[in-house]
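Field reference: sequence -> structure
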Amino acid sequence: MQAQSELIIECDKLGHNWRFFSELRPACRIVPVLKSDAYGHGLLPAARTLRRAGVKHMALFNVEEAQSLRQAGIDCRLWVLEGLLPEDIEAAAALDLTVACASFEQLEAMSRHGQSRSYQWRIHLKIDTGMSRLGFRPEEVPAALALIKQSPALRLRGCFSHLAASNQPECQLTKQQLHNFRQVLGLLPSSCDELHLCASNGILHGMMPELPYARLGIGLYGYSDLPQYAEKLQGAMCLKSRVLSIKEVPADCLVSYGGTYKTKAKTRLAVVPLGYADGYPRALGNQGELLIRGQRCPIRGRVCMGMLMADLGQLPEVQCGEEVVLLGKQGDDCISAAELAAKINSIPHEILCNLGKHPKRSYV
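Structure field:
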């Protein structure tokens, strides 16, 4: 039985994008970021694809994600970027992880655990260089290093930070963060060599190319803010549905909840069985478009929980059951997550993560 709608992930495109970034910065090890179910693309399929492609390090958000990969037999080095909650420490110790440490409380808890069980943690020190999220402020780093040095349970392997405006390399915040991180690097012992700051935009803007590691997030999934690179990346996610019904209505008819759209003339509407419960943004009502027969059809009225309506315009007689593409390519046209995000003042990351919750997902 054919699904009414499905999310299709083309896994080979993840490998293509990772190789593209690896060739762009060959002296640097590019670490793919698979947090949040690989940005909606599926954690395990993405990890297996990248492992076959030769990836030796993967970055995750939390211990639960790391546990899933270990249970699936993924044997590469795993970085947990969020750090640990107290209740995660025991489970994390059994998974052979490299864990971010962002506070004195985390360092002390891991030190106590390791000393009580003769276990040594591999840690990356997280530095707050100006984002005011996780991490030690630069002036706190000497005290953190002293604590690590005196604890046999803590082995400092790396240090990293996160840029708040990596798409703006010339802004004052970015310059200050780069300066702050360089200041911290001068305090680290030589054994701390897994140093990373740049994510996708930072790599493409050529920031701190001397660092031996970089994290690949949104670029892995085919998106970049820079037009000259966007065409070289390949979006791996495609959302398809089918025409459920064709409805012809006269002029001056209101469409969908709230009657936010009124037809200007006799109109043929395609009813598509997909809505915000499938992760498609409700905010795209009266703004989004979809592809039928390779032609763009505007969405009319509000997106419903499980349906939306599109204006067929002058398309030849469309039949029930025909393919509809809401994200991805059909014919010579393509709708990207970046395009959808721009229409609702969002970012591709949010579009992909939300669409990734679609109940029907397949891999090619």
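Note: The chain is about 30% helix and 25% strand.
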